[in-house]
Amino acid sequence: MTVVNTFVTTWRFLLTIVPSALVILSLNKGIKDYRPDIVDEAHRVRSIYISHLRPSYDFIIVGGGSAGCALAARLSENPAWTVLLLEAGGDEPLLMDLPQMYPVFQRTPWDWKYLTERSDRYCLAMEDQQCFWPRGKVLGGCSSINAMMYVRGNRRDYDRWAQLGNPGWDYNNVLHYFRKSEDMRVPGYERSQYHGHGGPISVERFRSTTPLRQVFMDAASQLGLTHPDGDFNGRTQSGFAPPHGTLRDGLRCSANKGYMRRSWQRPNLDIVLKAFVERVDIEPQTKRALGVTFEHDLLQHRVLAGKEVLLAAGALASPQLLMVSGVGPADQLQPLGIGVIQHLPGVGGNLQDHISTSGAIYTFDGRQPDGTHMSLIMPEQLNTDSVDEFLHQKRGFFYAMPVSEVMGFASTRYQPAHEDWPDVQLFMGSYSYGSDGGLIGRRGAAITLDNYANTYEPMMYQDSFVIAPLLMRPRSRGYLQLCSSDARIHPRIHANYYDDPLDMAVMVEGLKLAHRLTQTAAMQRLNATMNIYEWRNCPEVEYLSDAFWECLARFYSQTIYHPVGTCKMAPAHDPFGVVDPRLRVRGIRGLRVIDASIMPTIPTGNTNAPTMMIAERGADIIKQDWHHYPHGGWR
């Protein structure tokens, strides 16, 4: 049976690729012809000619992702400073603007394509039992390939950062930087003390939804879980509501679009795209960062930093660059022949991520009177009618974000509800692994063809949805293991999901809450039924028991793309700290890390907005340290 199913799945997958590719090619051409707002030719970032590279800059920023774009824009506000931004990828392709297209860019040249080490405790349904970790290799970084959820985290997250010995990072201080980066466009928040207006990153609701969104909200209401004001970034976080997104006029608003397209033409800011930074050049005796060495067009270049080198390459590449440059755990560097300039045992440690369980799929009776489906069935949507609707009416399928039409934050029995510090986040999505025949969802999650055929083939193209819980504050910690002195060779990623048994206990409770939502009257009116074939992964356990949910969690483990913590910000007495509260690398002059890797603990929610907040605050710290207090500039 499995062999037959795998054969059928493989052939359908191959036969689906061609028509889908033709639709996407038509869409891309149509955008060039009819959507000048997306082409945006006048504002598209252009790389300088390498021959125009200055020998020295005041600041060199490594990495043009969420943090790097914000840093480059803010530091170049001072016309007296010269700033160089080095990004290994190119500019965003046109299709990245479309919310619905975000998973298409995983496992492509715009993705670094990281994989975790094989495990027998998680990602059991995935190829080689490895978790696939996409990371953006493009200007804008992960803000250009993510699902655009605008969530800041919980006030207690940042108060805890301060309590751990990092003054200035409490909620009351960082709220200013969240507001500074934001242009809130959702009606009803014009006078909210929690939101900003006129900042570089636009925030809106997703423009296109399915009828399931209201069903999801009705189910949450019937369990008493509706969010009181629909704003996870306001006075309270707990509850369910449609999410806000980093969107402008319904399209993606990446850090590139928000920050760089309005600043890249400044005469004091140079940008080099497709520039791979090989190392930070550090003088061993003085322990000062002198500049960086990078490769561009197969040639090696060296450029000097008059003031500082700023690493903004993300939670995987920033610690790797530190290590290949001689800063990190001596026991990792010395065996690879890397001279130890500064022994910092915490570099690459403290790795945290929001693990999700994405396999709990529910089918339902969703055929509407007009014959259409309540959920998204990809063959019905990925067609020329949808292309025309997008190009000429600026609405429809390509504006949708079905992965989370409704989002929820809840506290399990392991977290006191009165603290309003939820320990699980839930995505209520209007499609599933069976909705696209394995074309995007299976490929993005790296589920094996055998497993996919065995568990999802029987429910192919039926109305279905997923409620995926995410573990918010894992106790488990992973680490990176350097493999080579060559920065091009990915480090080994030891994710260590569920290393602490409490993490699995919380995940099981999250899955049980998701299932309770499907048993409400709102869901049962649609005959919502769990996909029984998932039981095939662990037939020896009792159906719907805690052991069953644990089985699902171990088989369908999926990152939500939030690795953080690998260059931990900490006070001097913490032996595993990497940067101080002013983001300076311990023991090295002229070098800071300013990205998600500095987070001591992971925030309660998506990490893109917090990463931009870190860059905004980091830019102000630099201005203060170099005695530049800006007059004017953006809010």
TrEMBL record:
Cellular component terms (Gene Ontology): egg chorion
Reported cofactor(s): FAD
A GO term, aspect molecular function: oxidoreductase activity, acting on CH-OH group of donors
Residues the record lists as binding FAD: V138, V277
Alphabetized Gene3D superfamilies for the sequence: FAD/NAD(P)-binding domain, Glucose Oxidase, domain 3
Xref: Pfam families: GMC_oxred_C, GMC_oxred_N
Domain Glucose-methanol-choline oxidoreductase N-terminal, residue spans: 314-328
Record key words, sorted: FAD, Flavoprotein
SUPFAM superfamilies assigned to the protein according to its UniProt record, in alphabetical order: FAD-linked reductases, C-terminal domain, FAD/NAD(P)-binding domain
Record-stated family: Belongs to the GMC oxidoreductase family.
Designated name of the protein: GH11954
Classification of source organism: Eukaryota, Metazoa, Ecdysozoa, Arthropoda, Hexapoda
